Amino acid sequence: MERKKPRGILERLNAGEVVVGDGGYVMQLERRGYVKAGHWTPEAAVEHPEAVRQLHREFLRAGANVIQTFTFYCSEDKLEISGNVPNITGAQINEAACDLAREVANEGEALVAGCVSKTPCYVDTHNETEVKAIFKKQMDDFLKKEIDFFIAEFFEHVEEAAWAVEVLKTGGKPVGATLCISPEGDMHGVPPGECAVRLVRAGADIVGINCHLDPLTCVRTVKLMKAGLEKAGLKAHLMIQPLGFHTPECNHSGYLTLPEFPFALETRAMTRWDVHQYAREAYNAGIRYIGGCCGFEAYHIRAIAEELAAERGFLPPASEKHGLWGAALEMHTKPWVRARSRREYWEKLLPASGRPKCPSMATPADE
Amino acid sequence: MERKKPRGILERLNAGEVVVGDGGYVMQLERRGYVKAGHWTPEAAVEHPEAVRQLHREFLRAGANVIQTFTFYCSEDKLEISGNVPNITGAQINEAACDLAREVANEGEALVAGCVSKTPCYVDTHNETEVKAIFKKQMDDFLKKEIDFFIAEFFEHVEEAAWAVEVLKTGGKPVGATLCISPEGDMHGVPPGECAVRLVRAGADIVGINCHLDPLTCVRTVKLMKAGLEKAGLKAHLMIQPLGFHTPECNHSGYLTLPEFPFALETRAMTRWDVHQYAREAYNAGIRYIGGCCGFEAYHIRAIAEELAAERGFLPPASEKHGLWGAALEMHTKPWVRARSRREYWEKLLPASGRPKCPSMATPADE
Amino acid sequence: MERKKPRGILERLNAGEVVVGDGGYVMQLERRGYVKAGHWTPEAAVEHPEAVRQLHREFLRAGANVIQTFTFYCSEDKLEISGNVPNITGAQINEAACDLAREVANEGEALVAGCVSKTPCYVDTHNETEVKAIFKKQMDDFLKKEIDFFIAEFFEHVEEAAWAVEVLKTGGKPVGATLCISPEGDMHGVPPGECAVRLVRAGADIVGINCHLDPLTCVRTVKLMKAGLEKAGLKAHLMIQPLGFHTPECNHSGYLTLPEFPFALETRAMTRWDVHQYAREAYNAGIRYIGGCCGFEAYHIRAIAEELAAERGFLPPASEKHGLWGAALEMHTKPWVRARSRREYWEKLLPASGRPKCPSMATPADE
Amino acid sequence: MERKKPRGILERLNAGEVVVGDGGYVMQLERRGYVKAGHWTPEAAVEHPEAVRQLHREFLRAGANVIQTFTFYCSEDKLEISGNVPNITGAQINEAACDLAREVANEGEALVAGCVSKTPCYVDTHNETEVKAIFKKQMDDFLKKEIDFFIAEFFEHVEEAAWAVEVLKTGGKPVGATLCISPEGDMHGVPPGECAVRLVRAGADIVGINCHLDPLTCVRTVKLMKAGLEKAGLKAHLMIQPLGFHTPECNHSGYLTLPEFPFALETRAMTRWDVHQYAREAYNAGIRYIGGCCGFEAYHIRAIAEELAAERGFLPPASEKHGLWGAALEMHTKPWVRARSRREYWEKLLPASGRPKCPSMATPADE
Fold first, then answer.
1. Which residues of B touch C359 (CB under 8 A)?
2. Helix (H, G, I), strand (E, B), or coil: what is residue D321?
3. Which among C249, C356, C363 has the least Cβ separation from residue B359?
4. Where along this sequence does the record place binding of Zn(2+) (chains A, B, C, D) (predicted)?
């Protein structure tokens, strides 16, 4: 990997570069045994730093230009409600997570993003002062450490996201903001275009979508955000970090409504070839910060970097262990496997589930 | 985790204990960016020891009682043919892999198994002397390190497996041997029952099946092995390390014949609940060494340990981050997710693929 | 079957009665060997009257209150273009079809509807005079015979349908008009609500949807028509004669775009239980003329009559050979078949296709 | 249709001709409103002769060389048990059915086969004398009319079928005998090869399989029968009349065990193109009497005749309304439909079900 002195996130985006984001932490660490589903809190940053560090490294190696701190749901109110982390404070987790992200980011040319997410307090109180105090506390933890910018992510209500942006903006660093909403808009019915306008007016430098729905749906939503900004005469960079799962039947509330959530989503996982298509469509839509959320593993992030290798001019380190479009199968001993060492094969393949008694679509809980 | 002084593999099996095996290395490390598909060689043990160490740890934490050395395809003839590892010798990989396995095994109560697998030499030459020399060389690498027993695995021909067993037996440690065959028998048509007899007569203490086919198919094959042994008046322990993928349409050659192999197998991945069923059926069949191969991640291994917790008397460390049968969903904010916090829900669920344009079964390449 | 002197279609609908329509002719007679797919012309009325008569009888026996003349595509311009019927004139077919419909209608209490459908002339010329002359000629054929009312059906453009209505209205009998459009509107983009308004203003007494899309989609479109009429302060009866096939992925152009059209639609055929649901939803939407189009066989029409038996006060003749909701299975020799003699079983059943290598959804040709 | 003086069934088969059988009566007449599912008795021959006559005609027109009398389950013991036909005797039905079959057969060059099927008496009593008396009575009804040969069909036990053959043989006409068994053998475990031998030794001139399982499975079973005959040094003609449904998951008891039986089998219906494949495979297996059973409609029978047109030298009458392999779509107005006017398109098509919430395979009741 060629080392470059890291330039800032806005410097890169302003220069028209593609920034590859990292993938999903909580679901992957749940499978590895370090996060408890249902709680989804990030105490592993303190309890098992080696596991978090290794996952950061995989994303870095796969091409990620940003390492997000593993601080999802790490506000004091959420940690208390979940009751899952009795002996560790939010501040301890936030600080440990910053150290881990920084350590790994420095192994490459990556930036560290300090991340905040939606709070139980917002839904309970709608009290701007209280909610903002929570974001302020988490931001202060981050500012004790060396981070490069902030991301406010996983917000169902643009109002709360805008509050987060207003707080983070006081930290003196660039701010990205992503909502986990569908093309229909946020939970209060605010359409994506208007959501984008509100976030930019609150101070966000980068806006977009993360989690809850599959990549192609999220691209559609970001396009609506972009159109809203253009109509309002505003400018901002666009980012996207969608699910790594197919969710064609999902409505407004996303994959939480699927019967398979969260313990039987395997069948819905995207292949690396699905990600190629996603990366191309996101790029064509003008999005330049392209990553993933739940379900995105290292090989999915590598697929983003490989799909956009021509535009970016280089491949990620992990591509040394990957023949593009299956090229490494050329030397397989079985002729029928060798026949799969080409792009057309994988692009056209419709993968079978091996589950003839399962349906292909489910009834979401909110239908 | 309660520490016990590790007892030997035969000591445990003779006492009627359930030994939980580890999961699959090469496919998981391929996804993490450290193994090249098509080659599948284990140079990561030297190049990226932190990645191999972390995967060992995940399996240990999930309940594995055995850590297999990451030495798949690590015979000199295979390394040379694959051409993927120009600057590292097989001996270097074997020794590094032993060190990694030992380091992690010592963090728990686990044993280290030194593993050999099928050689290109066998298919090319059928020369017993040459093939045995290859196994001898790899065994000698292992014997420089502290390992607990040997496993000869992933053999399509019982003849080659028996040669491996004969060599490993000279190492003075217990030997397990698994074939990657279907209920129809090995590639020369030797039925499973006769395969088992040959392996035991060659000196194997534990015999069974690994890789190539899904868990329930592999259980069927081990049952045939068991019946063959009983008919011959022989005794041996039984082991199983099947795929973590659904392969109902596969014939003799297993998942290599599937159109999805190796880059679009996501849809076929087993859920943790599929593994519960598998662990129970394996146990009921009298198999006491129960693990996984390609497709088995840490959470699948944990599912084996959780399904057999009553028989074994304890849960694995990683269960501290897992509510049994979804129990941790009880406190979810969405009522429809809370409704999933019970065994019946997950046992009955038929997961949808979210891919309405994909079939449920494929045409294997050998059909 | 109790004979009643037939009352007129408007008399019935004005009294709030449910009028059961008949099913599809051309596709069923294609399967029986009397209609040529691709041409879909109705020369069988002359060539094989016994086949048309028998199909009329099946629908009558299944509960149909209306027998449509088998005169689909029977305009002179269409017959000429299709080139399928060299020695028979349109007038001969129209007259023979009227006789057949009348003969069978008189065996019950049914009415005869003389039917016209879209013309090639409209698309070629958009010439109102020419197109109207074609409808006038076909109407004159009908008026030589004793028919009860007219139906203008299978129109993709509301403009052409309105012209047909204007002509038929001069015949001095009630006129029904159905479009084969989606909820998005007609081929010129006129939304369903406005289509309904135009048809009623042209003189239609009954308006609705037929063919091209599955029942639940067609119910949605009729609801939009109803809403349009209400908004315009207009009144009309509503009718529906949808496909008997599942077409969830179809867009504007309907089932013609499906890869399975017209020779592999079997898998998409509705069960009788699907029709129960449809009949209930159509009824709940305020539709009172409820029948079917392509894919609706006699047992589907019977299912409409059986679902609405309570509202109508009687069962159709063919119900003497049908246990409601499978009741006749009670005396089956196999216990597992007896267990199917109840409503809940059939309502909940998700029928398998027995085709594990086929997808569940297709890519329509216009996507 | 070219008229030839009908030659006998054995004369035709001995000359190496392909004899096309007719399709299924009871299921088709159930859908048309004349047969009651669960009872499946043939009183329609008396009650609604026009409906039976028309279905005979469709099969004749589609190419059938044999018209089977509509006398399924028409033994006195079965009629009494079913309780469905209080005022009509078995003799009345048998005689009416012979008249209908003869009337239609004479419209073409077809033969009439008088058909008997399994009796409740056999299962209840296993009394050879009583069972044979039942067959004798039905045969005597047939012999009052002009029929050409007998078929004993739908037998689950070869013993009962052999008794039927022994009785029918005394009628002085050729006898065909078909079992509704799987490749595993009859309900007493007698394998297909031995079944064939017993039937031929009992006097059958033609032996084979009908109903219960899909065409390709039935071809496999007939092959086993053929092999059994060859091994025993016996000769007989082979016949086959399988289901027109896909039943890949069925075991011994056939489609009765499917959850979809009998009211939701639509999704499993074969396309005409499936039948082409079946007809070819049956022909290649040496079977020369090729027809269908439940699920076979006229267009399926036509597909047999069209697939074997080159071997037979002529097309059936109904082919005048059918472009071979979709040829008549060449003049369709939509370009994407025109693109379907060729064999390759239909041969390769994997039809979608339009039912994304349904599985592709079911769990049979006997699994």
1. 356-359
2. helix
3. C356
4. 211, 293-294
